[in-house]
Amino acid sequence: MPPENCFATLVGPGINQPDSFPGYGGFVGWNSPCRLKNGDWLVGFSAGYWHASPPTPLRYLPKTIEAYRKMGLPADIVAPTGGRAMIMRSSDEGKTWSKPVTLLDTPNDDRHPAWVELPDETLLCSLFIYPGVESADFVNRPEDAHRTVIIRSRDHGKTWDRELIRPPSPFLADESDGPMVLLNDGSVLLTISGVTKQGGPAEAAAFTSHDRGSTWQLLSVIKSDHDLDEANATQLADGQLVLMARPEGDISWSRDQGRTWTAPITFGIRMYAPSLYVLRDGTLVCLHGSYAPGHSGLRLIFSTDAGHTWIAPAKDHGFLVDNCYGYGKAMELTDGSLFVADQGTGGHTTPDAKTMSIRCLRVRIRADKSGIDLLPAPNR
C-alpha cells in the first residue's frame, strides 16, 4: 500500500472547497495538472453532485434514473446548469494552492479539463460537455450529444476566451480525457473517443491544430472490433506517435504524424483512463486505472522501447500509485519525478459524492528501471 504520509489533499471535505453553487454537492474529480512556463502549477477538475452532473431536470429515461438512484444519484439535487469545470493555482511549486474558481460553466455538465501550453504561452484547455441525454436521441437531436470543446487563455489561465472551439468530430457523440500534446513541429495533437453508429463500438480519432488551437483538422479515425474508449496519445522521442485506449489497453503507433496508425493490439493489461507521458530520458509512462481482479486502483507501467514491451510487477497489472478510484493525471517536474493528482472515488454512492477529494503525491521511476518510488507531495 502507498504510504499515507506521501499524500496531500488539494480539495476535500473542509479543505479548500469551492464556493457553493446551485448543483454542487461535494463531488470533485476528473482532474488534470499542468506546469506552466512562468512557474505556476494548475489543477483543473470537475465539480458537481455525482459521478456525472447533468443539468436538472434530468433527461435520462425513467429506467436509467431509477438505476442511477439505486447507485447513489442524489434525489433532491437542483442543478440548473449541471456541474462545472474549476481551476486552482499554485505559485510556489505545489506548496500552497489557491481557492478553486470557475473555469467553465455552460448550460450542461463540463467535464475533464486538461491542458497544453504552447511556445508563446497560449494555454489550451480541452473539455467535454455532457447534457445527460440518452444515446438514442443523438441521431435525431445531435445538439443533445456530449461533445469535446477547446477554450484558450493568453494570461496563464487567469481569464479565458468565451469562444468554445469544437473540432470537426466524425462521431455522433464524443469525449476527451486529455491531455493534449505539443508536437515537435509546434502543432498540437488532440485525441478523442466516440461512436459513429448507435451501440458502438467506441472509436478513437486524432486531430491537429497548427494555429494555436483556433482550428482543428481531423487526421484519422482508429477502429477495432471492440471499444477504443478514453483514448490518449503522445509523441515519442523518435517522433512517432503512440496511442492507448480503454478497456483492453489497446496500443497503436503512427509514423506519419497521426494520419495512419498500426492496427490496435493488446498486451495483457486491461485498463481505463490511460494517459501517456514521455519523460526527458525518453521513458514512456502510462498512468491508468486497473481492471485486474485484486489489483485495482491507480497504477503505472513504463516502457523503454516505445511501448512494445512494458515494465510492470505482473502481466495483468501495473505498479500501485494509489488505491483510489483509478482516475488520475500527471505532469513531469524539473527533478524528473511525476506530480500525480487523483480522486478518491467515482462518487457512485451518495456518501462518496458528498465526501470526494482530490489528492496528490509524486512518483519517481527508479534509475535502474526496477520499479517506482512514491514520494511526498510538495506540501507534505
Question: What's this model, at a glance?
Answer:
With 380 residues, this protein is mainly beta.
Structure description:
- It is built from two helices and 24 strands.
- It is mainly beta.
- The protein is globular, with a radius of gyration of 19 Å.
- The two termini are 18 Å apart.
- The protein has one domain (4-375): Neuraminidase, CATH 2.120.10.
- The chain has helices at 62-71, 350-354, and strands at 8-11, 27-35, 41-48, 84-90, 101-104, 109-117, 123-130, 147-153, 173-175, 181-182, 188-195, 203-209, 217-222, 229-235, 241-246, 250-254, 271-278, 284-290, 298-303, 319-322, 328-332, 338-343, 358-365, 372-375.
- Strands 1, 21, 22, 23 and 24 form a five-stranded antiparallel sheet that branches. Strands 9, 10, 11, 12 and 13 form a five-stranded antiparallel sheet that branches.
Helix proportion: under 10%
State the major sheet: 5 strands, antiparallel
Structural class determined from secondary elements: mainly beta
Mean pLDDT: 96
Strand composition percent: 35-45%
Considering the chains and any ligands shown, give keywords for the structure.
4% helix; 380 residues; 2 helices; Neuraminidase; 39% strand
